TrEMBL record:
This is NAD-dependent succinate-semialdehyde dehydrogenase. Keywords: Oxidoreductase. Transmembrane segments: none annotated. InterPro entries: Ald_DH/histidinol_DH, Ald_DH_C, Ald_DH_CS_CYS, Ald_DH_CS_GLU, Ald_DH_N, Aldehyde_DH_dom, Aldehyde_DH_Superfamily, Succ_semiAld_DH. The active site is at E256. GO terms for cellular component: cytosol. It holds the Pfam family Aldedh. PANTHER family: SUCCINATE-SEMIALDEHYDE DEHYDROGENASE, MITOCHONDRIAL. Belongs to the aldehyde dehydrogenase family. One of its GO terms (molecular function) is succinate-semialdehyde dehydrogenase (NAD+) activity. GO terms for biological process: gamma-aminobutyric acid catabolic process. Residues 19-478 form the Aldehyde dehydrogenase domain.
Amino acid sequence: MILKDTTLLQSQCYVNGSWVDGEENKTFEVKNPFDQSVIQSVSDFNVNDTRKAILAAEIAQKEWKKTTAGERSIRLRKWFDLMIENKEDLGKILTLEQGKPLQEAIGEIVYGASFVEWFAEEAKRTYGDVIPGHQADKRIVTIKQPVGVVAAITPWNFPNAMITRKVAPALAAGCSIIVKPAKYTPLSALALGVLAERAGIPKGVFNVITSSRTSEIGDELTSNSIVRKLSFTGSTVVGKQLIKACADTVKKVSMELGGNAPFIVFADADIDQAVEGAIASKYRNAGQTCVCSNRFFVHQDVYQTFTSKLKKAVANLKLGNGMEDGVQIGPLIDESAVQFVEGVVDDAVKKGGEIDLGGKRSDENNQIYLPTILSNLTKEMDVYTEEIFGPVIPIFEFSTEEEVIDMANDTPYGLAAYFYGKDYQLVWRVAEALEYGMVGINTGMISTTVAPFGGIKESGFGKEGSKYGIDEYLEMKYMCFG
């Protein structure tokens, strides 16, 4: 790997301001999903190692919460500056361990850094209130204080941004944090630890623990009473387990879970814009994002036009190694991910669906699944109910607004939704009728630092980013002065 700064590639965990191995000195390999080559071996923490990290975070938090908002802001701003200065190296590390195209990876670094910049500023805005008293001799004041030690469990699909989106508001609020990144992508998290150390974030305030023993570490983070807040991004199945596990110690939790996003094209839509939005939404990171469009509903009057233009555009996407110039679709994260996508497509075909494009692995690389378009589909197929997490577009035809709203909401998930149309009355009706936490209207890209990111129903609860994001790491205290 050609890095300008080779010290960003670490193999040890970052705990209490030091780079350490686990007590058993065990390691696990991090592989490039494109060719399965080993990038690095990293420390494999156990439960006892994790417990030590939690204790270190507890000690550090007692001092960190005493710092002024301005002091915390300065450290976070320095961390942001270092991320931007090193965005190319951070992007290369991300691409090698995750597989997404390099320019997309660098884009994630900039996006991830934006949360650090944003919450460096929001640290100074955690206002309380003075409330008119209920009696003449009473004065009522509310203040916001840090919740305490935070644990964050982050996914492999955005190994940088899903960390900064949690760590930045936690640190800004005065909390210390332990991050457990996905076993597939720990190197991006460790690189953030290097830069946090350079930025002067005190020892024990930001900790990164890597482990292949995901379930055991999760049990410790959820059961340990020192940890007062858990933030998780991942599947709904795992999220439900973590919520249950946190109940015994009544932790504050926020969950960003699975999705089944509809993408609706109405008869009056700008078809060229809709095609562009579909590709941006569906094929980013080879379809491996929680807000990817999952089910496409196209009005019967524009069905042929839309699908024809979409097929032409998708056929021109460049596949390959994310480190190569111009590549737009890289590998899926591992063999099981490819097999899952294959299973979903095979199910559709067995039940009468048709493959209009793709529908198999690339001949050049077994980990790349070809961008795929499916038609002649029904609600009984897995593509209607499952979160595909791959580069597959299943297209359903509809005739009325009521019909498509019913189909779009026919899922336990409620993270993101998208639709294209020009009639402003229809736009308002549909936007309000869709049961989702986020709605993209005439756009396929909705993620931004300044807006609240989060879902409803079984897609979770809690918001990340925006002015609301820091509240997830604060407790409100009411004081009555007699």
